[in-house]
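Researcher: Structure for this, please.
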Amino acid sequence: MDILETELKELQQCVPRVIADSIVEACVPAMVRVKIEKTKYKTITACFQFDDEYPKTRTLIELKSRYISSKLLDGLTRLSEEVADKHLGKPQVLHILRFVRNFIDENPLCCCSEEISNIKKKLIEGSDELKLRQKTSSVILKVKQGQYYLKYNLIIQENYPDQQIKIEEKECNYPPVFRRWFSAQSLEIARKCVEPPAKKKPKDPPFVLKPSMEPVVSFLIEEAHRYVEMKCKVCGKKAFPEDPKDNDPDEYAPMNVERVYCGHIYHHKCLDTYIKTPPFMKGKTCHTCGMKIYHEKWKLTPETVEARWAHKQAKQRELDEVVDFLS
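Model: Predicted structure, token format:
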């Protein structure tokens, strides 16, 4: 019995026992194929072929996966070849399988490697950072614009992308209204990736589950950068103060920055004056996009606002008449 036949016999007996979550799908001189499936999205099939000089020569290795990116598999294949080279003249397959299985265990972010690659292209060099934490299966995102910054910890769960990512705010010096917006909208984006809408419309396409990390990170990067430079749509001045410490903690302060439903921003005083000043017909619309303005601090109907304005004007006229009489 030659070395290859002996190795094949040993592989059939010990691979399922020695390599966790593995299945031997083929084990003949022409090819060995072993599937390693930790989870649905962390599955790698390793295929081996042998020439006449094996094991003096390296086995031919091919790694396949439906969900792990080809770029990552190419790198893993090269590393597996280095493992094989260390065992020339001896059986190589079991050592390579053990290496691949350990890689899956030690790199839980392998299931989202393509997302990570896409995200890195969106980062602004010199201000944004993306750090991978394989031990905790998490990603640390830091976005900086001027003196404003946010830092989030995004945890990739075991059954990702079937499960949405967990989102933790670590640091953020944006005004409170924007901190709440960043966190709430990130959670909503992640939820929509894994849960179908509660009320499906007849013309809506079928729901398709998709990974949630890239949409969330893309949202945080885009929103954190664009707001800092935006101007108030009424006074035309830059809405955010240069120094985050100058933000008034009072959310009803005149210069507090308000974000309306359409996404544009105003100073609190400017928006309050605009909403409470005629004309009121059909409600107030955004200066930039023309959409109707919605905000939780201004929930009154146009009719009510107009009635209050008229009442205030009548009171002022009465006061002016008294002043004129006395003078």
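Researcher: Any notable elements?
Model: The first strand starts at residue 22 and ends at 28. The chain has eight helices and ten strands.
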